[in-house]
Write a structure and sequence with these properties.
Elements: H1 8-14, E1 20-25, H2 30-39, E2 43-47, H3 55-68, E3 71-75, H4 81-89, E4 94-97, H5 103-113, H6 137-147, E5 149-154, H7 157-161, H8 163-168, E6 174-177, H9 179-186, H10 193-208, E7 213-217, H11 221-230, E8 234-239, H12 240-256
Parallel strand pairs: 1-2, 1-8, 2-3, 3-4, 4-5, 5-6, 6-7, 7-8
Length: 266
């Protein structure tokens, strides 16, 4: 598509019917993204932090997502501007950066994601993001500045303390509260009252700054209901590997529930 195009992720966030729904992609197979898209997810987060997915696999997963109508976000392992540049030119609609603890780190992430004068991202208009050169340069630049999303992960008490300032950094579009890392860093469980209070504080600060705040949880209606009631506006429903494993276990459990009536049946 060589004309103006809005971000699928931003469109999902704007849907007033309910939270935007996504899942992590950890398996480097394009079929996974096809299945997720067919299931009706709004977005996927291709995980380069906690999976064996490499850049070439991410490139193919991004392309599959774009062709099947699900928004591709890429979580990088850390802030490496060169990698951010490459996944965005591969067509990713956004980048998620883990362990953003300070406004300075948020500004560095925003600089990597945005073109000058907002940032330092280089121009690569002959990439997939620029429709291999068919997209007018002005539209390629507009998409990079206005449609691409930067999601900062808040995963520590320090990050929570700075959540409002992080969310207010120009170029930061959303926060994702990492309850697992937050609780582990505090030596507590995610349900501990102190951790619950930290999560509530991060949500309140993000919303006060006018940015959506998301979380990662289980693939159940109860988990999504709890996320919405807590104040999250987008949520991750499990991940591809866990969803596949759960379905496989359910199939085997169903099969094992059937036994032979007697020896003659054999």
């Amino acid at each position: 598509m060589t004309g103006p195009r809005a971000s699928l992720f931003r469109a999902a966030l704007a849907d007033a019917r309910g939270p935007a729904l996504g899942t992590w992609v950890k398996i480097p197979a394009t079929e996974v993204v096809e299945l997720v898209a067919l299931a009706g997810f709004d977005f996927v987060v291709i995980d380069l932090e906690h999976s064996p997915i490499d850049l070439e696999s991410a490139f193919r997963l991004i392309g599959t997502a774009l062709h099947t109508g699900v928004s591709p976000i890429v979580r990088v392992a850390d802030l490496h501007p060169g990698l951010v540049q490459r996944v965005l030119d591969a067509g990713a609609e956004g980048v998620m950066v883990p362990h953003v603890d300070t406004p300075e780190q948020a500004r560095a992430a925003a600089a990597a994601v945005r073109f000058p004068p907002l940032g330092t991202r280089g121009v690569g208009a002959t990439s997939r993001a620029g429709a291999w050169g068919a997209l007018p340069l002005a539209e390629y630049l507009r998409r990079g500045q206005e449609e691409v999303v930067l999601i900062a992960q808040v995963e520590s008490a320090l990050g929570v303390a700075n959540a409002g300032e992080i969310a207010a950094v120009p170029g930061v579009d959303a926060l994702l509260v990492g309850a697992a890392d937050l609780s582990v860093s505090e030596g507590k469980t995610p349900s501990d009252p102190d951790v619950v209070a930290l999560i509530a504080s991060a949500i309140a600060q993000g919303r006060a700054a006018g940015v959506p705040v998301g979380n990662a949880g289980a693939a159940t209606a109860a988990a999504v209901r709890a996320a919405v009631d807590t104040g999250f506006t987008f949520t991750m429903l499990s991940n591809d590997a866990t969803l596949l494993g759960s379905a496989a276990r359910a199939a085997v459990d169903a099969g094992r529930s059937v036994t032979f009536h007697d020896e003659e049946t054999r």
